[in-house]
Amino acid sequence: MAEKLIHLKITRQDSPNSAPYVEEFKIPYRPNMNVIGALMEIQRNPVNAQGQKTSPVNWESNCLEEVCGACSMVINGKPRQACSALIDKLEQPIRLEPMSTFPVQRDLSIDRSRMFDALKRVKAWIPIDGTHDLGPGPRMPEVERQWAYELSKCMTCGVCLEACPNVNQKSDFIGPFAISQVRLFNQHPTGAMNKHERLEALMEDGGIGDCGNSQNCVQACPKGIPLTTSIAHMNKETTKYAVKRFFFS
């Protein structure tokens, strides 16, 4: 009986400036295998489908439980996490590509710097002066705490940016994840001290005004974060702030 194999077609790129190419691999099948497991098998024995020795495929991963967001890639045309993509549930040949929204460093490894730059731009943190004990923080109403928990699930995986037609190399749009993080930190009792700074950032070029309302992001988010609800909420908040600033500045 012939050995059962997994057939992969992987888009590879040797360096940031080199041309991409597709290389095929056929590896032994194992039950309950995920895409990361398949890539690790290629790394262990880097031989392509033609039986030629090749370089191991480069990719990123960390937690292996859909928490860190590092293993994002396009799998069979859909941006998602490789750690949660089970081989048994994927149509073969399995096509693996890097997310096109981000610069490719090598093979499936991408540079997600634009996401972290966006978080810096909207001040997605709670500033605390000093490291001394400040005592217990202010309590949040339970309804707001539940909303905050949902928004805090973001792992900066980049899937929402890959799915968004308004995010590309020619666009400065910060993306839905950053808008949602503004909502998260603006609703925090301490984070609200910098609320206006975050609203100002959203109103700049590349901010919330560049959202085309395609709603692809909420469908693609692996954590099910209500991104479109956050965008609608922040649209309302920035409009209120703009009117207030116009009449009272």
Automatic annotation (TrEMBL):
<protein>
    <recommendedName>
        <fullName>succinate dehydrogenase</fullName>
        <ecNumber>1.3.5.1</ecNumber>
    </recommendedName>
</protein>
<keyword id="KW-0004">4Fe-4S</keyword>
<dbReference type="GO" id="GO:0051539">
    <property type="term" value="F:4 iron, 4 sulfur cluster binding"/>
</dbReference>
<keyword id="KW-0408">Iron</keyword>
<dbReference type="GO" id="GO:0009055">
    <property type="term" value="F:electron transfer activity"/>
</dbReference>
<dbReference type="InterPro" id="IPR012675">
    <property type="entry name" value="Beta-grasp_dom_sf"/>
</dbReference>
<dbReference type="InterPro" id="IPR050573">
    <property type="entry name" value="SDH/FRD_Iron-Sulfur"/>
</dbReference>
<feature type="domain" description="4Fe-4S ferredoxin-type">
    <location>
        <begin position="145"/>
        <end position="173"/>
    </location>
</feature>
<keyword id="KW-0560">Oxidoreductase</keyword>
<dbReference type="InterPro" id="IPR017900">
    <property type="entry name" value="4Fe4S_Fe_S_CS"/>
</dbReference>
<dbReference type="GO" id="GO:0046872">
    <property type="term" value="F:metal ion binding"/>
</dbReference>
<dbReference type="Pfam" id="PF13183">
    <property type="entry name" value="Fer4_8"/>
</dbReference>
<keyword id="KW-0479">Metal-binding</keyword>
<keyword id="KW-0411">Iron-sulfur</keyword>
<dbReference type="InterPro" id="IPR036010">
    <property type="entry name" value="2Fe-2S_ferredoxin-like_sf"/>
</dbReference>
<dbReference type="GO" id="GO:0022904">
    <property type="term" value="P:respiratory electron transport chain"/>
</dbReference>
<dbReference type="GO" id="GO:0051537">
    <property type="term" value="F:2 iron, 2 sulfur cluster binding"/>
</dbReference>
<dbReference type="InterPro" id="IPR009051">
    <property type="entry name" value="Helical_ferredxn"/>
</dbReference>
<keyword id="KW-0003">3Fe-4S</keyword>
<dbReference type="InterPro" id="IPR017896">
    <property type="entry name" value="4Fe4S_Fe-S-bd"/>
</dbReference>
<dbReference type="GO" id="GO:0008177">
    <property type="term" value="F:succinate dehydrogenase (quinone) activity"/>
</dbReference>
<dbReference type="GO" id="GO:0006099">
    <property type="term" value="P:tricarboxylic acid cycle"/>
</dbReference>
<comment type="similarity">
    <text>Belongs to the succinate dehydrogenase/fumarate reductase iron-sulfur protein family.</text>
</comment>
<dbReference type="GO" id="GO:0051538">
    <property type="term" value="F:3 iron, 4 sulfur cluster binding"/>
</dbReference>
<keyword id="KW-0001">2Fe-2S</keyword>
<dbReference type="Pfam" id="PF13085">
    <property type="entry name" value="Fer2_3"/>
</dbReference>
<dbReference type="InterPro" id="IPR004489">
    <property type="entry name" value="Succ_DH/fum_Rdtase_Fe-S"/>
</dbReference>
<dbReference type="InterPro" id="IPR025192">
    <property type="entry name" value="Succ_DH/fum_Rdtase_N"/>
</dbReference>
<keyword id="KW-0816">Tricarboxylic acid cycle</keyword>
